[in-house]
Amino acid sequence: MPNIVVIGAGVSGLTSALLLSKDPQNKVAIIAKHHLGDYSIEYASPWAGANFTPMSSRETSRWERRTWPYLKKLASEVPEAGIHFQKNRIYRRRKDLSRLQDGSASMLNNVFAADPHYKDFVEDFRALQDDELPEGIASGSEFSSVCINTMLYLPWLVGQCRRNGVSLHRGTIAHAGDVRIFPGTRTKVDVVINTTGLGAMKLGGVTDQTMFPIRGQTVVVGNVAPFMQCHSGTDDGDEEACYMMTRASGGGTILGGTTQVGNWESQPDPNIANRIMKWAVEMMPELTAGKGVEGLDIIRHGVGLRPGREGGVRLEKEKIDGTLVVHNYGHSGWGYQGSYGCAEEVVALVSSIAPRAKL
Ligand SMILES: Cc1cc2nc3c(=O)[nH]c(=O)nc-3n(C[C@H](O)[C@H](O)[C@H](O)COP(=O)(O)OP(=O)(O)OC[C@H]3O[C@@H](n4cnc5c(N)ncnc54)[C@H](O)[C@@H]3O)c2cc1C
Fold first, then answer.
1. Which of 44, 194, 247, 261 has the most neighbouring CB atoms within 10 Å?
2. In this structure, what DSSP letter does residue 84 have?
3. From the alpha carbon of 217, which atom of ligand 1 is closest?
4. Which residues bind FAD per the record (predicted)?
């Protein structure tokens, strides 16, 4: 029976643990510095929107493509997971067309492709008619998507893990090679799963210096958006975007936001918050029934750091000081929408290296 320790309790760690624990031969424990309820700048997952807006290129789309059927099933059949369906509208601003064409529109470039590859795996994809486009928008599309209430979904994942016998522990690991004994036992650990997100920069044995933060500032409001929206840009700079999504079951509406590369600032910037709210009511006046920013019912301001990585996600195995480690970190802005695809790969990598009981 392989003894597996997952470092990290974000969406990557919890989903990896969940899929690993479906095999009764695996014994799985999670050790993490931050767990649910910790709203820390070192813990990206609670701050996410989160919705399904494919960001990958066709070549790297496997993780998101594989995840969509899981999220769709949860939204259809598992209300306690806190995921619901919402239409997702993508708007390409006339002002952004040239930088969208030359590929310089940041991590969201693939989202706004004129003929996006993801139309092959999302559902109900259609181009918007001219009379559906707000002023200044050159073209747009709509498809069926989901919005995840992370405050309900992450606890649901923890519950599913516990039901499958996964144990959770608080701890900060200094070096990946230090995890040798399975928590609460004297038995040896066979495989360590590294899902530390931005923590991979500091984790001994890994210290991945290609990681960088992509700062996401948001405002959560009580107003309801009838559908999700994502705009290709704003007039306030390349690192500011306009998007909104209403979370399931009273989770409020997330108004975004920023994509500030290399920015570690943990505190909300009031000027950015004002701009986020201004864009939101301009782009979707029905949010406040035409009352403008004054009509927004502000619940809280938030900042999370997306775990960016040069070259994209790291999903591979490695031996560190004699310990077998499977890496699953660096998901940037798509950690939820790629979570099951990546966790499936973790399971495949573990199966290729872990000792199995003889049947
Ligand atoms: C504003 C915002 C909006 C977003 N919207 C979306 C969206 O709509 N859709 C989407 O799919 N994604 C979205 N994301 C991205 C998503 O949140 C991330 O990709 C995802 O949360 C990364 O999860 P993770 O588990 O890899 O890392 P994290 O959630 O950061 O978890 C890392 C874990 O590792 C632990 N850890 C780190 N180092 C150590 C150590 N040395 N020892 C022990 N534990 C350690 C931490 O304590 C934590 O438990 C958004 C992010 C932000 C900030």
1. 194
2. E
3. 1
4. 196
